[in-house]
Amino acid sequence: MDETNKTAGTPQTLDRRRFLGALTASTALFVSGNAIIHPIEAWGLEATAIKPETMLSLIKIARDIYPHDRLADKFYAIAVKGYDASAAKNPKVLAMINDGVGGLDQAAKKAHGAGYASVGWEADRVKLLTAIEATPFFQTIRGGLVTGLYNQKELWPLFGYEGESASKGGYIHRGFNDLAWL
Asked: φ and ψ at 86, to 5 degrees?
């Protein structure tokens, strides 16, 4: 696809060459049209208000703020999908996200020669995030991720959480004293 089509806003098509190229790329996530696709884990995320490239950065930001090596990227994508819905309803949220990710991309390009999502080392990305941790953008993303990530019931077993216990008689008689390591 030539540069004029990319800048004119024409959606990119997913042909076999781009798909196979993405499989062998250093990162498994890639943007196609208005979606983010992870062909190895077989999931995709459609972005409606936020540009897919920005959503890709939000996924990387989410992983850097709450790093869990055992969690697949799809859980972080689910966690940031709520920001797309909020941005679709509120232009101020969209502007805050675009400005925040844009600022991170500029800082990353200045320090590492690539946008935030393309910076290879987690420690380098964390330094970039630490520099903006007092901003409303960072605080909004960090705060929303607490519920967006940890309220996913599919993740609870990975963290050893069995869910609420009130309907089952509480924790006292359901393993509360089973701590072998204490």
From this structure: -65, -40
Q: Indicate the Cα dihedral angle 145, 141, 61, 149, nearest 10°.
A: 10
Q: What is the pLDDT of residues 122-174, one digit of tens each?
A: 999 999 999 999 999 999 999 999 999 999 999 988 888 877 777 777 777 76
- The domain limits of the chain are 49-157
Please list, residue by residue across 97-130, b when 16 or more beta carbons sit within 10 angstroms of its beta carbon and e when fewer do.
Answer: bbebbebbbebbeeebeebbbbbeeeeebeebbe
Closest CA to 95 of 141, 50, 150: 50
Rounded to 5 degrees, what angle do the CA atoms 101, 106, 109 make?
120
Beta bridge partners, 38, equal: 43
Q: List the beta bridge partners of residue 46.
A: 35
Is there a contact between 78 and 152 (Cβ–Cβ < 8 Å)?
yes
Q: Where are the beta strands (DSSP E) in 78-139?
A: none
Q: Which residues, including other chains, have CB under 8 Å from residue 91's CB and lie 6 or more apart?
A: none
Any idea how long the chain is? 182
